[in-house]
Amino acid sequence: MKACVGWRRFLFCFPLIFILPYLFSGVLELHQNQTVGDAPKENTKKLDDQNSAVRDAPKKNSKKFDHLVLGPAAGEGLPNRLQCQGVKALNKTQFSNPSHVSGVGDGIAFVTVFTIYNNSLDTLVNRSSNLVTVGNASYSKSERSMAILNVFINFIQVRMPQSNIIILTDPESDLSVHQNRVTVHPIQGEYSRDKLMLQRIRSYITFLEIRLEKLSQELGRITHFIFTDSDIAVIDDLGQIFEMHQNFHLALTFRNNKEQPLNSGFIAVRGTRDGILRAKIFLQKVLEVYSSRYMNASRMLGDQFALAWVVKSHPSFNGKRFSKAQAFIKEIGGASVLFLPCATYNWTPPEGAGQFHGMPLDVKVVHFKGSRKRLMLEAWNFFSSSADISDMLCLILKSGRTKYDF
Ligand SMILES: *[C@@H]1O[C@H](CO)[C@@H](O)[C@H](O)[C@H]1NC(C)=O
Ligand SMILES: *[C@@H]1O[C@H](CO)[C@@H](O)[C@H](O)[C@H]1NC(C)=O
Ligand SMILES: *[C@@H]1O[C@H](CO)[C@@H](O)[C@H](O)[C@H]1NC(C)=O
Ligand SMILES: *[C@@H]1O[C@H](CO)[C@@H](O)[C@H](O)[C@H]1NC(C)=O
Ligand SMILES: *[C@@H]1O[C@H](CO)[C@@H](O)[C@H](O)[C@H]1NC(C)=O
Ligand SMILES: *[C@@H]1O[C@H](CO)[C@@H](O)[C@H](O)[C@H]1NC(C)=O
Question: Where is this region: Disordered (predicted)?
Answer without folding.
Answer: 38-59
